[in-house]
Amino acid sequence: MTRRSIALGLFTASLSVTLPAAAMSEQQFQAEADTLFAPLMAQYDVPGLAVGVTWQGKHYVFTRGLANREAKTAVSRQTLFELGSLSKTFNVTLAALAQERALLSLDDRVGEHLKPLEGSPAGALSLMDLATHQSNGMPLQVPDQVKDDNGVMNWLRQWEPTPGAGHERSYSNLSIGLLGRISAQAFGQPYAQALHDQVLAPLALNHSYVQVPAARMPDYAYGYARQDNKAIRVSPGVLDAEAYGVKSNVDDMLRFIDINLGGASVPAPLAAAIETTHQGVTRTQSFTQAMVWERYPWPLSRERLLAGNAPSMAVEAQPATRLPERETREQGVLFGKTGSTNGFGGYAAFVPDERIGVVMLANRNVPLEARVKASYALLQQVLKAER
After folding, report:
1. Burial zone of 148 (CB within 10 Å; 0-12 exposed, 13-18 middle, 19+ buried)
2. Which of 344, 345, 88, 340 is nearest to 195 (CA)?
3. Which of 145, 242, 271, 382 has the most Cβ atoms closer than 10 angstroms to its Cβ?
């Protein structure tokens, strides 16, 4: 039994204990969430959103607006939102689980698992490089001319790192997509099936999907495009499932945050895999990069958190220093990640020291600064009520 699995059992048992009297009331939470998110919705014409906070095992949920403007369907706790790049946190969990089961090592080279890339610069990258965006210039999006898996391999065989670059952080759907493809291959399954069978189902995330089942389509929100306000959903694309393809609701995402906080009983190999995804690998100016998750020192200023979530962190290469040893300490750390598609915007963060986490899901691609600022303020208000 691992250290984490023992801790999970002890902490799960503790959730039955009455919360401190200072815990924020449901009425207070609804008022605070409305104060923070109603202006955001008005400013950016957000049709609907769901916001949740987990604090010491207690869940608070705020929903507002419409999942479907045309049908006038209200957002509820059952509403499914596109997670965008929050999906990547599930991708790396699958990869870390494959390592736990000795199906691969995160130190393996890409070319060991994708033979067409053997001997190429892309093939020389490690799986951990893919998990931490250390690709030295891999593009953010799969190139438009790439239409299928063969096209991906052909393009990557010709790809060259940015000339003269050091070990830079280049946020890339293409590189993280490769990691998901390799991890699923290690399990002998297509990615969507591997993610469901190995991660989502064992974690009891029963309302999270790559492909939304027909019976759940009425709960699947429409996103609304910034440019023309058209109702849209994510379009199929190469490596889309691996990079940005999960849809989920606020309750499942709160459970996922609880799991990352160590506050839910899960199979020991998955607990160990999740712990691996938290380990810091490289350091940027604003945060330490773990496997997709970004690690900030806690407590931290709002300004530092916003700097780490600036659009430039996704669209421009950033200097990054490889740490001599992986940072395993989770005390004094806030973990965070944003996620977007053309019609949706989300954010998730958690602080193990405080046993608190926040999730925001909206069917508008709200600017990163606005969603992070409001979510962080709500997290702070819940903590303030405790103290």
Report:
1. exposed
2. 88
3. 242
* Coil vs helix vs strand at 107: coil
Helix (H, G, I), strand (E, B) or coil at 104: coil
The two three-digit tokens of residue 214, written as one number: 């027909």
User: What is the C-alpha separation between 185 and 113, in angstroms, rounded?
Assistant: 8
For residue 222, the SS3 value is: coil
Beta bridge partners of 334: 296
Token pair recorded at residue 254: 């709160």
Q: Which two tokens stand for residue 70?
A: 């045309």
* Global pTM exceeds 0.70: yes
Omega before residue 267 within 30° of 0, cis: no
Give the total residue count for the chain. Answer: 387
The values of phi and psi at residue 261, to 5°, are -80, -10
| CATH code for residues 3-87+191-386 | 3.40.710.10
Residue spans per domain, the chain: 3-87+191-386
Task: Please give the structure tokens belonging to residue 373.
Answer: 């600022």
Structure tokens at 307: 């700097």
Would you name the residues annotated as active-site residues?
A: 85, 171
